[in-house]
Specification:
There is one protein chain. With about 425 residues, this protein is an alpha+beta fold. It is about 35% helix and about 20% strand. The protein contains 13 helices and 20 strands. The protein has helices at about 25-40, 70-75, 110-125, 145-155, 170-180, 195-205, 205-215, 230-235, 245-250, 260-270, 275-285, 385-395, 410-425; strands at about 1-10, 15, 55-60, 65, 90-95, 95-105, 140, 160-165, 185-190, 195, 220, 225-230, 255-260, 310, 315-320, 335-340, 345-350, 360-365, 375, 425-429. It has a four-stranded antiparallel β-sheet with strand order 3-6-1-7, covered by helices on one side. The protein has a four-stranded antiparallel β-sheet with strand order 16-17-8-20. A four-stranded antiparallel β-sheet has the order 14-15-18-19, with helices on one face. Strand 11 (about 220) and strand 12 (about 225-230) form a beta hairpin. Helix 3 packs across helix 4 (about 145-155).
């Protein structure tokens, strides 16, 4: 007995087999996820039950493959392509319409179970790499946003579902920005931006440095605004040495955007020092950081996901995180996207409760080039619904750093996105 369902793809899926013919949502990923929902709903969550059906998946519309490392790194919160050879990279695949074809082998009961459970699975799950950050969103082609929200509202426990609206083209970067606020905070610096007066000063008072930047096309006018951008990071990569006085002059023209982690602030109110501060005190004691400190140190960022290795690029260090019981732990916060087909999209987020099994567990931290190690525990108690209520209130009342001065790159984009999110206001379903 066959069941045919057509899906709309709302966001690109990051695929490791992007170069193979027919690369699409993988049945080997999709079926186990759907099976879990069926077993939970109809079989008392007995994961040993075998569900005897087959599913075939194919795109019905032409595929768009976005294979640039730059775009994946910037917009998809995906860093796995960095330093990888071309044949090992994962790329984004997008096709607007998809077909699922289920064969239940004349089992009408199982066909009904699939029909009733599929919308729950599609509403709560994404697919492919970085799926909990909004990549790989699919839902029924013939269902409305009201249908989608009804499923979310009924099944996205334990937390409430929150959402905001934005331009479709900004969706994935909006998720990246909001998630950064929720977990680690945002600290970005742009290239120096010079007014016409500062540009003239550079040309007059630092002539050798100015000519060097010009010859390497590392100083360029920004549109027709009368401002100029200096690509200091590129100069550093090219091993172009500027005089210390010119470098100091340009450094003052850098623009930055900085937002404290909401997770840090939440636990600070509970008199708990988060792990980033404890790590710096242990391995980087000469680094200036927030002066606030409590003797109660916890691995609080682990509540929102754990990777076994972190790159601390600013300090040219690698942090390793180990536990006897856990390796990588995904974030319990899931982002979903619904494309409204008018250039606008709605972004939802909610939390799952699997972080509960981390509470009170110990993790060991080591840092490259530094002696010793550091043991930190996950907090013994955490109510993620309470945290999300707190975070939404903070974001809706956020002081945006952008004060109207000219900025470029990610600094400008982050402030723009947060201005839009605050304008839309994050609401609760």
């Amino acid at each position: 007995m066959e069941l045919i369902v057509r899906l709309k793809q709302h966001t690109p899926i990051i695929h490791f087999q992007w170069d193979q013919k027919g690369a699409t949502l993988r049945a080997t990923e999709f079926k186990p996820k759907l099976d879990r929902y069926i077993k939970k709903k109809y079989y008392g969550n007995d994961q040993n039950i075998r569900l005897k059906y087959q599913v075939r998946i194919k795109y019905l519309s032409p595929l768009t493959i976005n294979g640039t490392q730059k775009n994946l790194h910037k917009d998809s919160m995906f860093f796995g392509n960095l330093n990888q050879p071309e044949h090992k990279k994962k790329f984004e695949i997008y096709g607007s319409e998809l077909e699922l074809r289920f064969n239940t082998h004349f089992d009408t009961k199982l066909k009904t179970q699939i029909e009733e459970t599929l919308p729950i699975c599609l509403a709560l799950e994404n697919f492919g790499t970085r799926n909990n950050k909004g990549n790989g969103c699919f839902f029924y082609k013939d269902k409305t946003i009201n249908d989608f929200e009804a499923v979310l509202k009924q099944y996205a426990a334990p937390s409430s579902v929150c959402y905001w609206d934005c331009n479709f083209s900004d969706a994935i970067f909006s998720i990246k920005t909001v998630y950064s606020l929720l977990k680690s905070g945002i600290n970005l610096t742009s290239n120096p931006v010079l007014s016409k007066t500062a540009y003239n000063t550079l040309e007059k008072d630092y002539k050798i440095d100015f000519n060097l930047l010009k010859s390497e096309t590392l100083i360029r006018q920004i549109n027709s605004t009368g401002y100029y951008e200096v690509f200091l990071n590129t100069a550093k990569k090219k091993k172009i040495e500027l005089s210390s006085s010119a470098y100091g002059f340009l450094k003052k023209m850098k623009k930055e955007t900085y937002y404290k982690s909401l997770l840090f602030k939440y636990f600070k109110d509970k008199n708990i020092t988060w792990d980033k501060k404890a790590i710096k005190m242990k391995f980087l004691p000469t680094v200036n950081s927030d002066k606030w400190y409590s003797n109660d140190q916890k691995f609080v960022r682990g509540l929102l996901g754990i990777s076994d290795v972190q790159s601390w690029h600013t300090y040219n260090k690698t942090l390793t995180i180990k536990s006897n019981m856990f390796e990588r732990v995904p974030s319990p916060i899931v982002f979903k996207v619904f494309d409204k087909d008018n250039g606008q999209t709605r972004i939802y987020f909610f939390a799952k409760d699997f972080y509960m099994h981390l509470l009170g567990k110990t993790f060991k931290f080591t840092m490259s080039g530094c002696g010793g190690d550091l043991d930190l525990d996950i907090p013994n108690y955490f109510d993620i619904n309470q945290y999300m209520e707190y975070a939404v209130g903070e974001i809706n009342n956020l002081n945006i750093n952008n004060n109207g001065s000219v900025t470029t790159g990610l600094v400008k984009k982050v402030d723009y996105i947060l201005t839009k999110v605050k304008s839309s206001q994050i609401k609760k379903l």
